[in-house]
Each structure stands twice: as C-alpha cells, then as structure tokens.
Amino acid sequence: MSKLIQFVLLGAAIWFGLRLYRQWKLNQDRVDSPRGQERFERMVRCSTCGVHLPASAVSANGQCGKCSN
Ligand SMILES: [Zn+2]
To answer: 47 alpha carbon to ligand 1 midpoint, in Å?
Structure first.
C-alpha cells in the first residue's frame, strides 16, 4: 500500500514540476521575443533639422539621412 502512495506522490511531483517549467518557459519566450523590441524602438530627434526618426535611422552624430550628407 505504501508503494502505491509513493508512486502517486512521485507522479504528482513530476506533473507539478512540468507545469511550473512550462509556465516559466512561456514567460521567457514573451520577454525575449524580437517583435516586442521592434514595437518599442526609441525615437530620436535630428540635431540639425529637428525631425523625429527611429534611433536606427539616425547617424552616429545624431543627424538624419538628409542632414548627414
Ligand atoms: Zn535632419
């Protein structure tokens, strides 16, 4: 009888562990998704003409494509 109880407890522990792992993995995927980073791209202002652009579209000295040429 005690063997059966041990088996049931072991099964419950494994089930609970897998549930926690899946929940943790889901949260990790949400944090690391590249789509989330794209959505919140920083906007910066051109230091010469004052136009607002995504940070990746501004040159190293803080100017837009038009002003840096
Ligand atoms: Zn500019």
So the answer is: 7
Give the three-class secondary structure for 59.
coil
CA of 41 relative to ligand 1 center, distance in Å: 19
pLDDT digits (tens, 9 = 90+) for 37-53: 556 778 999 999 999 99
For the purposes of burial, counting CB atoms within 10 Å of the CB of 60, is it exposed (0-12), middle (13-18) or buried (19 or more)? exposed
Q: Could you tell me how far CA 62 lies from the centroid of its own chain?
A: 27
- The SS3 assignment for 62 reads coil
Task: Give me the helices (H) in 1-53, please.
Answer: 2-32, 34-39
Instruction: Find the 52 Cα to ligand 1 centroid distance in Å.
Output: 9
